[in-house]
């Protein structure tokens, strides 16, 4: 009789232990599932956030060609700020990315002339005529060690900009394709992230205008 009671108690204990283990396994699975789904939600939100930032605010841009040398070189990795120009117009001296007027490419150029101004290039010099300087003023570009070739006079419209490449002898720019409209400008070069020894946050040059 005692042996039968022992067997019954042993069976009951096994059932209890099995139920405890099963409960622990279920609790672990529930915790794991909660953690997994929390991680999944965070990952999805992170991807959406990065996508929105990249699409609407900042975009990477690789420099191609030599038109902006010596200040920008082939394969420089730039971060383009697409937000600022939604709240203010481009400023003289800023380096911008713009849609090509003739194909699907993008150009990297520097803003030299602003809306409503008259730009004159003559004798390797750039002269700006505006309300502040109706008689004209010479543009002094401290970031260049070369002359601006060409000869032209261009009056800019209310939403037009005159852009030039820093490599004035080898740049396809407003001297060839004319003024750039505001709607064609993608954004401004904000940061150079590569190469590592040339990481730079860009600032606007000081002019005498």
From TrEMBL:
Pfam families per record: Peptidase_S26 (PF10502)
Entry membrane topology: Single-pass type II membrane protein
Sequence intervals crossing the membrane: 39-58
EC number: 3.4.21.89
Keyword Protease: yes
Active site residues per record: 67, 109
Domain Peptidase S26 as annotated: residue spans: 38-194
NCBIfam families: sigpep_I_bact (TIGR02227)
Protein name in the entry: Signal peptidase I
A single GO molecular function term of this UniProt record: serine-type endopeptidase activity
GO terms classed as biological process: signal peptide processing
Compartment list: Membrane
GO cellular component term of the entry, any: membrane
InterPro entries on file: LexA/Signal_pep-like_sf, Pept_S26A_signal_pept_1, Pept_S26A_signal_pept_1_CS, Pept_S26A_signal_pept_1_Lys-AS, Peptidase_S26
Top-level taxonomic group: Bacteria
């Amino acid at each position: 009789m005692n042996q039968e009671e022992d067997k019954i108690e042993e069976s009951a204990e096994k059932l209890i232990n099995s139920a405890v283990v099963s409960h622990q396994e279920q609790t672990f699975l529930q915790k794991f599932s909660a953690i997994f789904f929390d991680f999944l939600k965070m990952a999805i939100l992170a991807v959406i956030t990065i996508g929105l930032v990249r699409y609407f605010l900042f975009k990477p841009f690789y420099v191609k060609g030599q038109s902006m040398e010596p200040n920008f070189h082939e394969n420089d990795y730039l971060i383009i700020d697409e937000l600022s120009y939604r709240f203010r117009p481009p400023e003289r001296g800023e380096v911008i990315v713009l849609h090509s007027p003739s194909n699907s490419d993008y150009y990297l150029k520097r803003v030299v002339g602003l809306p409503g101004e008259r730009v004159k290039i003559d004798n390797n010099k750039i002269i700006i005529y505006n309300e502040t300087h109706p008689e004209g003023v010479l543009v002094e570009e401290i970031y260049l060690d070369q002359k601006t070739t060409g000869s032209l006079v261009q009056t800019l419209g209310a939403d037009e900009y005159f852009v030039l490449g820093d490599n004035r002898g080898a740049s396809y720019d407003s001297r060839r394709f004319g003024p750039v409209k505001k709607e064609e400008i993608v954004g401004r070069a904000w940061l150079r992230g590569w190469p590592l020894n040339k990481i730079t946050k860009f600032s606007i040059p000081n002019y005498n205008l």
